[in-house]
Structures are given as structure tokens and as C-alpha cells.
Input
Amino acid sequence: MSRDIDVLVLGGAGVDTIVHVPELPLPYADSYMIRPGIETRAGQTGDFVALGLHELGLRTHHLDLLGDDPEGDLVRALHRDRNIPLTAVPQAAGTKRAVNLVGPDGRRLSLYDDTRSRDADRLPERTVRELAGASRHAHVSITHPCAHALPALREAGVTLSTDLHDWDGENPYHEPFAYAADIVFVSATALADPERTMRRVRERGRAEVVVATAGAEGAYVLAGDELTHVPAVPPPAPVVDSNGAGDAFAAGFLFGRLTGEPVRRCALYGAVAGAHACTVPSTRAEAISRAELLSRTVALETATPV
Output
């Protein structure tokens, strides 16, 4: 079977409204004067992963539910303008949206509109099977429709990755994703014992690699039985926003994986891409290019041989 798509990204399409606040947590007050303003732009986790993979030269296709609304138009325009193929399944409840409060240090608090989803939401199984059959790999967002797509993806014989984001290691909602994927990304932020959680994912699921990202502390990579630490990479410019850093890390790592690099090089690609994302203002959807990723990686390896 012809595999014309390198990575099929499922779910995670939506729109964020960015609000810059003087500090986080934000103290109660009747009102705040906000600068530099409030801006709405397309780009949630699936959009950012798809954009990151596309900019690294991988043939990428994005599949998700979108509403016939202004938010959906923004998502469609983002993909059209960046030449990223998008299959948009009609969503009666509307396109997913969120408000991101962004502090001066780049940290954020995201408020998701839960009215934009329904229990009956599904990605059409035929569409999932057709696209998965044409793909080398699928990256699955942890949305309700994507959970129901996991069996069809596995039956299609495509390798899977997922990002569990701020999973606490206990919430059962995340387990189907954690145990179905070949590559699992998770933030260490809410994990009481990251190594224990990573090893449990390996033992109970099918993951070959589990990656726990830890911000300025770098990342921890479990491949086989070996746990290694990959230091954080210095950002090439001042940090302005952490939004999208995890998605960029995932895209960089998957680029390495799909181009045959060893796990440590994949993690370094992820670290370089994540550091770049932290320098991009939250009002922009921008990813590191392939040339820039490779040149920065070579410079780092030359300065600090692995």
C-alpha cells in the first residue's frame, strides 16, 4: 500500500484567544488594562504539531471536527495558507476554542470552552481508515473523538504517538491513549513520580519510547529499560511564551524518529524545536524550519559532544 502521508495528525484543531496579564496567578480585581491587547488566532495542539511537522518537511495531513463558524474559518485559513492538507468533519457544536492567560514570564493558564464538544462526537471510521492506510505514522490528540478512533488506527497498522499533556498518572481518561501509542509524550508537571509513571506506561501498553518533558529541566526519555536525561536547550532569543513548546518538542522528536535517527538525537531535535517555540509570541503560529533545526543541532553537538 502506498504511504503518501508521513504523519496523520488527529484532533486538536481550534482557536485560542490570547490575553496578556501582569502576573499569574492573576489577583482578583474589578478590571485590568491589558497590553499588548487581546488577540484571537488559530492554533491548538493538533494545529501546532501539524505545522511543526510540515515545516520540518514531513508530508502532514490533519483530521478533526470543525464548526461552520468564524473560529473554523480561522483554522481552515491557517492550514490553507501553510499548505497543510486538512480534512474537516462538520461539528454542529462549533469549533473548539480556549482563552489563554499569558504572564510576563511566558507561563500560561488555558481556559477551554467545554460546550464545543458532545459525547456523540466521532471521526468517521471510514475516513480514519483511509487516511491511516495512506500514512506512515499517526499522532493522536487526547480528545473524545480520537479515543474512539484508536481501534481503527491500530487495525490500519500505522504506528501511533500521543501527548498526554499534564496527566497526573492516575486519571483513567488518558489510559487508552497511553497504552495504545508506540511513542508517548507527557509533561512531568503533574506527575508525583515521573519515572514510575513512565515505566508503568511501558509495562501496560505498547510504547517503545516514553518521553516526559520537564521545561527548563529538559526531558526524560525511557527507551527499553533505559532512562536517560536530555538537558534543556538554551532558547535562541528571549522567552516570551511557553504555549506550543510541548507540541514543538513532539514534532521535532517525530521528525527524528521518521528520518531514522537514534532516540537521543530525536530528543535533542525535540529540545531544539521546543526552545524555539518559547521565543515565538503567543499571537503567532510559527514553527522552526528544517534547516534551522539541523544547524542548531549540529552547533550544540559540536559544542557539547554526545
Summary: The longest helix spans residues 263-277. The two ends are 38 Å apart (CA to CA).
